Amino acid sequence: MRTDERRIGSSAPADGVVCFAGVDWWYHNRGHSECQIMRRLAASHKVLWINSIGMRMPRPGATEIPLQRYARKLRSTLKGLRRDPSGMWIYSPLFVPRYTKRALAWNGYFLAAQVGMLRRWLGITRPSVWVTVPTAATTLAHGSWERVVFNRSDDFSAFPEVTSPQIAELEQELLIRADRVLYVNRGLYERERHGVRVADLIDHGVDFAHFAGARPVPGEAPEQMPPELRDLPRPIIGFYGALDDYTIDLELMIATARAFRHGTLLVIGPQAMVIDRLLAEPNVVYLGPIAYDRLPAFAAQFDIGIMPWLRNEWIEGCNPIKLKEYLALGFPIVTTRFPMLAPYEDLVYAAEDQPEFLAQLTRALATRDPAAAQARRERVADSSWAALSQQAAVWLALEEESGACVE
Length: 407
What we know:
Elements: H1 3-6, E1 16-20, H2 33-41, E2 47-50, H3 66-77, E3 81-83, E4 89-91, H4 101-122, E5 127-131, H5 137-140, E6 148-152, H6 164-177, E7 180-183, H7 186-192, E8 199-201, H8 208-212, E9 236-240, E10 243-244, H9 250-259, E11 264-268, E12 271-272, H10 276-279, E13 284-288, H11 295-299, E14 304-307, H12 313-316, H13 322-329, E15 333-336, E16 349-351, H14 354-366, H15 370-380, H16 385-395
Parallel strand pairs: 1-2, 1-5, 2-4, 5-6, 6-7, 7-8, 9-11, 9-14, 10-12, 11-13, 14-15, 15-16
Antiparallel strand pairs: 3-4
Helix pairs in contact: 2-16, 13-15
């Protein structure tokens, strides 16, 4: 269906945004790009955030910690509709947790009806759509939208345990339907840009003041620290983020802990995989998830920040926001090499395999270079979620172009 056939029809701006998110507001990291952008848009526009309906059914024996996943989604669903302090409305939809073609079609009708009622209650008559999760494609077919922006943040058909051909079909439907497709991964952009209406290769922003402010001197951890970190042996080798079985190289984390017994491997983030073997290491400290507002105070104590990624198709298609946050904090970074690291590789210690990763850790710990710490920070100082959000308002037809550009 062509864009001009499904739009509401006049030149008036949109009066709100419906965001079909790729994450759940109540238990995923709120540092995600759509979280950053939508809560800023909510300061001056009506924003209805629809928590992700997912793409796969957790299965015992196939999915890590399936019961915990069921429980957290149930807790989220029971919250219904709530308003965030940013002004954004958060809705956990009712849906059938199955991902067959028939179930997705039924969910499309059912979710469209829920969104329609919420739109009327919130007074959103001319909505635009920001969509990330491919399973929302069946819902978009049942509404009229001023603009459809597809946030192509990942190659979801490469997601573990999904029915890849089916997810790829839904992604293709969104690529055809969208007025604009946003890419943060160059490989995906080059692969698809000629088959969409408008393709933009953008980069993530960073909440620079939030992270840099927690470490006033880029190369030095602040003297004041959260009580949970007192008396931890140095050096502190740190990681924060989701512990997912399709992103984290658990063997590499265990090897890191064993190679630096005299220090601490500090791990922060929600657990979505079994990490008992890692926790058995005596120098591993796991704090679980830390609220975004408090996170920089903990990360500021890292002597080294690590990104121990797996080498797989999912990582090939990603662009982790964590990289810019680590750079803003200024400490040395040791990471598994991935394609979107290229523009920043001169600022980090990159590795191809486990032996090189451990060697790079040793090298980073032995190097004290205030100039390098400052260079890391300066590279991302002008990256701005505010600028990206301002441009998103234009893409979503909430505002007219005013010379703003994506930084």
